[in-house]
Amino acid sequence: MPKAEYQRLTRAQSRSGIADALMSRSSLWLGQDHLLCVDSGGFTETYKRFYFRDIQAFTLVASRRRAILNWILLVPTVPCLAWLLTILVSQPVPDRGMVITLAILTSIFALPLLINNLLGPTCTCRLRTAVQVEEVPSLCRLRRARKVLGRIRPLIAAAQGGEVPTEIISTRMRELFQTQAVTTPTEAVAGQPGAPPPAVA
Amino acid sequence: MNTPIQCPRCQAWLLEGVFNQPELVPCPACGVPLQTEIFPAFFRPINPGRAGEAVMVEGESSCFYHPQKKAVRPCDGCGRFLCALCDCEFNGQHFCPACLETGKTRGRIKNLENQRMRYDSIALALAIYPLLLFYFTLITAPISLFVAIRYWNAPRSLVHRTRIRHVAAITLALLQMTGWGLLFITLASHHRS
Fold it and tell me: What is the CATH number of domain A7-62+122-159?
């Protein structure tokens, strides 16, 4: 059997935003010399390729998605569970139909709640090339994102001739920032349109 | 020129202390936990596009698309002479813009394809969804069968390479059509008797 051209890195995840989440799902695949981001929208698939030689940076930012989902699922879970426990404790011979109904109802909310917490903290992942900054919706869990990053880091480093030592990054960033500051128009004043964002060190 | 990395939340430029760290570190400006991995391509200068040299000597080979520009190489697709402006390098090969467009639209250069229609999913959806209102399957089952057979050899998804959906759609459609056939035969025999 021939070797598959692409290896799955992540399962399909909903895109952020309610409309997008309903319409399309995104997954990430590993190709020979690139990452393939597949957006499936019903009966079509849209592909975006990010070649290892072009990837400049990955940024992971912790998000509150897990906490929000927890609250959304906790609100119906708690009353259902409380009701179920009340029936079980208060009635010597509980109504079996009611208990089964409530147990199913509780599990409908409790199971996703459990899975949401087992999958770990959430994040948003942005991939940067020379001409774009793309969000990678399928890397929405920190643990998974780190795992994927650990897998593709050596491939990117190999395609770009090695990794950048951490001590060099700061120096070169500072040089870059100074160049940017010099090339910024003189009329651009901090706080006004066209002014560079505040720099932080 | 590359612009510095910005914090996705507050848009502040990140300069040092947050790059290639093993854990999330707070953004020095807004405090949001982030992890930024930088690769050598970030520091690579962006090469300016080439304009193409003008033909200086009469009789010198010139670009097919720009006769006043000097040809630098032939197109690997059609063999036309190209100037530096028209020379599009892709995966180690050199194409003219027309060949690149043709390759993209006709799917000849697979790495340029950015969209595919999932005919197998259409066929399967036509076989499954109408089951909710089963009498629709009288019409949709033959359509599903037609789509599955007509597009059997059509390019499938780049990543899901099996024909399982096609097979499932054909099986379901045939079952539905058999069911309708049996129903009509039964009704006909009842009508006769």
Answer: 2.30.29
